[in-house]
Design goal:
Layout: H1 3-16, H2 30-41, H3 46-49, H4 51-58, H5 61-87, H6 94-101, H7 104-141, H8 147-167, H9 169-197, H10 220-227, H11 229-234, H12 240-243, H13 251-279, H14 284-289, H15 293-302, H16 304-338, H17 345-348, H18 359-382, H19 390-418, H20 436-453, H21 460-484, H22 496-506
Helix pairs in contact: 2-9, 2-13, 2-16, 4-5, 4-10, 5-13, 5-19, 5-20, 6-7, 6-19, 7-8, 7-16, 7-18, 7-19, 7-21, 8-16, 8-18, 9-13, 9-16, 15-16, 16-18, 19-20, 19-21
Length: 507
Amino acid sequence: MSLSSNHQDKDKSDLNKFGYAQELLRSMGGFSNFAISFSIISILTGAVSLYGHGLTYGGSGMMGFGWPIVAFFVMCVAAVMAELASAIPTAGALYHWAAILKNKRWGWYTAWINLIGQIGIVAGIDYSVALFADPLIASVFGYESSNTTVLVCFSVILLTHGILNHIGIRIVAKLNDFSAWYHIAVVAVLVLSLAFFTKGSLNPVSYLFQVGETFSDKPYMFAFLIGLLQAQWTFTGYDASAHTIEETINPRVRAPWGIFTSVAYSFVIGFIMLAFVTLSIKDASAAAGSSNAFIYVISEALGGTFGSVILWLVTAAMWFCGLASITSFSRMMYAFSRDKGMPLSSQWAQISKKYRTPAKAIWLAIILSFLLAFIDYLIKMVNPDATYTTIAFLTAVSVVGLYVAYGIPIYLKLRAKAEGRFQDKHLGPWNLGKYSNAISIVALIWIIFICVIMVIPPNQMAGYAVAGMLILLVIMDLSYYNKHFPGPQAALNKSMEEILRREKELE
């Protein structure tokens, strides 16, 4: 028997002891698992689409200080999540962790809050693609880009992602592998172009760390905190490595490394890219006041034609990011529906016999993501003088939803350890050892802090949206799911102690 076959049998056995059959095709290697999270983080999406947001509120110092500060704390969050993924390797990920560490109700709320964040991140990513692609297409075909044409472009992009994810995980996995290398290549092209072909000279390196300048009406320190949305939204979605864990070979090791290294590499590569973009700024005030600061800076630095080529390359990278985000979102919904946690769960838990993918869950992810952006479009039509931007609204919703969902199992793990229900023997091969509790506490403090920052003005619309969805969840819980949701198979009569005992029996 080959080494691969041995791994497949061990992985299947690991999944069986949590109460699940191996339904999804397990074919992803370590790089593929890393690539899906790296592609969703996508420094060429988050850091680029919100470049104007960061520049407007924090000036050039946002890139020099804001990016590293956020990256450090996010790596703490990612490390704790990686530890949990190694201990509990199921596609339900966050909500399975919560259910096992506490109970099904905690798991149910975690799942729905994660779904809110997933809707926001898919909508935010694909809307970012549309914001870049539509003006570029408009310049070719001679029409004027508007909110309506951007929405149409957004719809087409969502459709392409739905079709490819439906067709099969092997194609998407290969595209995600390509996406990781493509991101690195495009960043290299962008950096080298700015380093050697920028019109005029680059700003001195000290400009990158210049603080005190804001193009908003807020005091600088407060404005700087608001500007952190740029980096914080970029570092989201790395739980994708956990959501695709049932499709990954040797998942207890490879998925945790996928979670952690996707954040670490994104930090380093993203910082280099942001440094050169910022050092090439000719007029920060004009860039901050433009409709798209990144497009403005690149066009001014590299000229019209060359700049357009670079922007098309960046837009393609964003498209790959959206493709990976649909994969992650649909797997999470599939796992939750498999446990009867959603309305019409039997539909969303179905696996396509031909393609071995959760086809109906994929298309539900597409529809929900479109609706979030479409509702915002209608609000903007009724109130065209609204001061918030669509992209800031969508991204803030995703940050709050995802990070609250990240924080719940981290908090429950600390409680379970304090009560003796989760011990060192329950950890997987990837763990933080004696530093686990300290890193978990730091991660929790950051999550609380950043979630507050993301919903204060001018992002209050995101706070209203999240609050409204949470109220709806409480109503759903009290009226139906509290009595009818059986809970995930991973948690039904299976404490960590029971799972450990079963694991020893299977060995």
